[in-house]
Amino acid sequence: MLTPGNSADAGLDLWSRSDVQTCTSWNAPIIWEGMFNPRHYDQIHRDEGSSVALTVFAIGRYLDAYLEAFLNSSENHFMVSLPVSYYVFTDTPEKVPNIKLAPDRRLTVVKVERHRRWQDISMMRMKAISDLIESDIRLHSTHVFCFDVDQVFTGRFGPEALGDTVALLHAHYYHLPEMLFTYDRNPKSKAFMKTGDFYYHAAVFGGSWKSVKALTEACYKSIMEDKKHNVEALWHDESHLNRYFWLHKPSRVLSPEYCWDTSIGYRTDIRVQRLLWAPKNYQQLRTS
Ligand code: UDP
Ligand code: MN
């Protein structure tokens, strides 16, 4: 039963948005504009000493196409009140633009191999993130957020989004019935799902470093298991992520205000746009 009043998070007013679902069946809040006082979250996370690692991959043509705009916009909007460590994974470190960072924010470039297939580039992020949490992130940051690079911040993306495990409602599916969710439907895949809660978007996920380590490790293991059996999940890492969040319910869910696609058009429930999908020419980006 939904009991929004019992949410553990005192900073949220779950009744303040009556036009949208603000709480999951397992009592995790779904964060929408108007439910919280931003200054409250800035303050409690500063008091708690929270710090955030942001991971982003810019491999092949994605670096020139998206990285600079992503990082510049992030400096203006992402966790502005907290220390942030960026980790840029790329095959061409020499091409990473020089971004002027605010105090208390730093950027590390991590060189990675370029997989031939874009599906593998996307999936193998799970392994790279998990390894880096173990070797570096866990020593410096309390939380981790993982982003696709083909997006631009346009509004506050602040500490109200921090939690133990954080998932994002996919902009194209949040208002659709479950039967239309594009879960993996092949029983041979480790990502197979018959039923689920929501359709989550893999372009943004996060949580405490411990939880993100567990998540990325589990997804990587499932991906490798599939490879062993010569199967690939319908939407690659996103399919595995959806299954993981079905088995391990996120403690906090972000509304599509946290990753909106303007091609959907106007929606009354989207009161702010915090992060937007960037335009994409797949053919140009993905052909080598
Ligand atoms: N990516 C990359 N180079 C590639 C393919 C993917 O850097 O050639 C990274 C990049 O961060 C990208 C993410 O993997 O945002 C996921 O791929 P993409 O955005 O193309 O997937 P989509 O959002 O279209 O499902
Ligand atoms: Mn993307």
TrEMBL record:
Keyword annotations: Glycosyltransferase, Transferase
Alphabetical list of Pfam families matching this protein: Glyco_transf_6
Keyword Glycosyltransferase: yes
Cofactor(s) required, per the database record: Mn(2+)
Principal localisation: membrane
Family the UniProt entry places it in: Belongs to the glycosyltransferase 6 family.
Membrane topology, record value: Single-pass type II membrane protein
Protein name: Alpha 1,3-galactosyltransferase 2
Gene3D superfamilies linked: Spore Coat Polysaccharide Biosynthesis Protein SpsA, Chain A (3.90.550.10)
Cell compartment(s), UniProt: Membrane
SUPFAM superfamilies for this protein: Nucleotide-diphospho-sugar transferases
Domain of life: Eukaryota
